[in-house]
Every structure is written in C-alpha cells, then in structure tokens.
Amino acid sequence: MRMPFTGPTKPPPGPFRDGFWRSPLRDQRLTALLGLILLVGLPVVIVTGLLSNDAYQPGLGGNALGRDIHGPLDVYLFGWPTHPGWLYALGQGLHVTLGLALAPILLVKLWSVIPRLFEWPAFRDPAHALERLSLALLVGSALFEFVTGIFNILYWYAFPFDFVQAHYYGAWVFIAAFAAHVVLKFGTMRDALSKRAEVLGTPGGARPLAAPNPAPATMSRRALLAGVGGASLLLLLQGAGQSLGGPLRFLAFLLPRGRTRPGPLGFPVNKAWAATGVSVSSVGTSWRLHLHGARTLELTREQLLALPQASYDLPIACVEGWSTTQHWTGVRLHDLAALCGVHAAASVTSVSLEHGTYGRATLGHEQVADPRALLALCVNGVNLSLDHGFPARVIAPALPGVHCTKWVSEMLFEPVSVA
Ligand SMILES: Nc1nc2c(c(=O)[nH]1)N[C@H]1C(S)=C(S)[C@@H](COP(=O)(O)O)O[C@H]1N2
Ligand SMILES: [Mo]
Question: Phi/psi at 86 (nearest 5 deg)?
Fold first, then answer.
C-alpha cells in the first residue's frame, strides 16, 4: 500500500497518469506527419489572410471598421492593386478553402499530442513554464482563428466581439506562437519523419507521445490517416466549388452562399434587399445619385444610363470565400470623378441607402483610375435586381466583395492632394 505522501512529483490521478492515454495510434511519427502538412498549409493561410486585410485598405476612410490603424500590429504594406481582376477571389478562396480543409488535420494533430497537455509536474522550471505558455498561446490562438473563421463563413455571429478585429489581432498571436513552435520543433519533426519511431527518445524529458501501455488497436493508423485525409479532401472540394464556381458550384454543398439559381440574376446574394429595411420608394423615381467632388451634382438613373457605358466580366469575391464572375455594365468611376471635377482622385467613398457597417466603403486611387471599375447599373444584360444593388452598385477588379457597395446613393471623390 502506498503512503499518502509520495513526494511532490507524484501526478494526480486521471489524465496526468501515464496509463491514462492508451491509444496505440499516437506516436511521434503521426504527430510529425500531421505537423508537416500544417507546416506547408498554414503559411499559405497566414499570407493570404494578411493580404486579405491589406485588400480592405483599412487606411482609407472608414474601412478600418473602428480599428485603430496606427497600432504596432497594423501593418499595411501597399495600396491594393486592380490586376489581375481575380486576385482577391484567388487569395480569399485559398484562405477560406485551405483553412477549412486544414481543420481536420489540426484537430487530429492536437489529439495526437494531448498527453502533453497533462504533463506532470505542470511546470518543471522557468524554461519549461515558458515553453508551456507558448504552447497555450499556440493552441488557444489556433482554435480561436479556426473557430471564428468557420463561424464567419457560416454567417453565425455568435460572438460579442467584432469578427474582423478579433480575427486580425488573434492572427498575430497565432503567427508569433506558430513561428516559435516551428523553430523549436522543426528538428524533432524531421528526425521523427526520417527515423523509425521506436528509436526516438524524448528530448528534454517531455512525456512520450506513444502510450507506455497501449490498448489493443480498434483501427489502423492507415485508417486514421485515410479518414482525416478524406475529410480534409471533402472540405477542399466543396470549398473549391464555391470559390471557383462555374460547373464546380454544385460541390459547395455545405456553405450557405454556394448555390446559384438559374437566370441572369441567379448568382449568390450576400445581403438581400429585404434585410436592409430601406423603403422601396427610396429606390423609385425619386432616387438620385449625389456626386461630391470639386463640385456637387445629382443624377437620375436615366441620366446615368445616358452616359458612356462600359462592360466587363468581373468577380464578386466575398471575404467569406465564395466568388462569382458576372458581366457588369455601368459608368466608369473615373468618368463620375471627372463629372464632378476631380481629374485625379485619391479615393472615392460610396455611401449606400442602407446605413450600417457595410453601408459605405472607400476605394483607393488604383481603383478609381482603373477603366474596369464601375458604378454598375446592369448585370448580364438586364437591370440590377434589388437584391444585387438596384439602382446602382460599385464593382471593381480585385476588390473584396464587401467594398462593392450596393444601393449607392452618394459618392464622395477626394482629389489627389497637391501639397
Ligand atoms: N449596402 C451594402 N452593400 C453591400 C453589402 C451590404 O451588406 N450592404 N454586402 C457586401 C458584401 S459582403 C458582398 S460579398 C457583396 C455581395 O454582392 P451580391 O449580393 O450582389 O452578390 O455586396 C457587398 N455590398
Ligand atoms: Mo462579402
């Protein structure tokens, strides 16, 4: 019989005891293999995420949605380009689709190292404590980024905080912790992948990942890898369905904005007209486009249609990962700027009849100068529907969908300052 006092290193019962974790599937090789996949995939998700933030052009107008854009973590490297037109669709499609496809890999990777969470003693010395703190930040921020991202693409706003701000600052915690983890563990991963698992020691005295007294196997490791790989591939395919669209659209069986209806106006709608609460009379004959620049003027829809029209195939690429390319017709932003006396615009702020977070957006000089950037009046040869932004909406190449303001009633052109 054991004495009640067995010294300070005796682990408490349950998951802290070696015998508790008995799956024969855990070992360093499995963890290293999943780690390698994440090491290749996550940097793509990180870089496309940071680029997506850049594409918002948070330094312009109210685009930062209340963020303090002068904080140390707010780095915006360049003005967002307009070429190629599918740039944002590609970047955001990769960010969302790959992020989603890596979720099962991340979960199984975390499962494979779960005995380490219950190491005893919890903190051996200051270096060990620091390492565990960095792991807590890594796991916490990874789960936070994946959960908030997935909730966002499912339109489930279950959080009391702003998604863009939280996902952005959370990303910096994750990037720092991920970089530290790669530096610390790269050698271990390489060794585990190149040597037989059994000959591996446990450097630094960390708890071994392989169970000391494994339970009989209920599935093979190959079956586990096939399961997680299959789940990942399925998510990759259905994500590709919504971001590539076209004939692959049917694959997007999970995501709410994946589907289209037949007809020229049957492409996805982000926010429907009915959800804006704006009265139908405000888009009737009394509707005017108010232009502000060196001078102010008002245009009816007929007057806009009488101006030179331009047509381009351009994607709407939503931050939630779906995109759809349609044939848009309207007046060039550049021409509207000239009409109100602004011949070189630094920016344009479009204001919607709908007041709210998405009711205004500012575009930079790259967008205004591009001949393909339009205030669209028609799409696919017919008038815009109310759901797609009638009487007029912004559409511009490589622009995040959220800046393609619908139901526009006012545009403020800011001239390039000559000072
Ligand atoms: N006024 C207004 N414009 C808006 C939005 C909105 O909610 N309100 N949503 C934006 C977002 S997030 C996207 S992705 C596109 C979608 O355009 P669509 O509904 O025509 O496909 O519209 C943008 N324009
Ligand atoms: Mo969007």
Answer: -95, 10
Domain ranges of the chain: 18-251, 273-415
pLDDT, one tens digit per residue, over 291-329 is: 999 999 999 999 999 999 999 999 999 999 899 999 999
CA separation for the pair 255, 387 (Å, rounded): 19
Probe ligand 1: pick from 265, 402, 407, 409, max atoms within 8 Å of CB? 402
Span 273-415 CATH architecture? Alpha-Beta Complex (3.90)
Q: What is the pTM of this model?
A: 0.93
What is the atom index within ligand 1 of the atom nearest the CA of 406?
3
Pocket test for ligand 1, best of 243, 259, 270 (most atoms within 8 A of CB): 270
3-state secondary structure 53-70: HHHCCCCCCCCCCCCCCC
What atom in ligand 1 is closest to the CA of residue 394?
24
Nearest atom within ligand 1 for CA of residue 400: 14
pLDDT of residue 64: 84
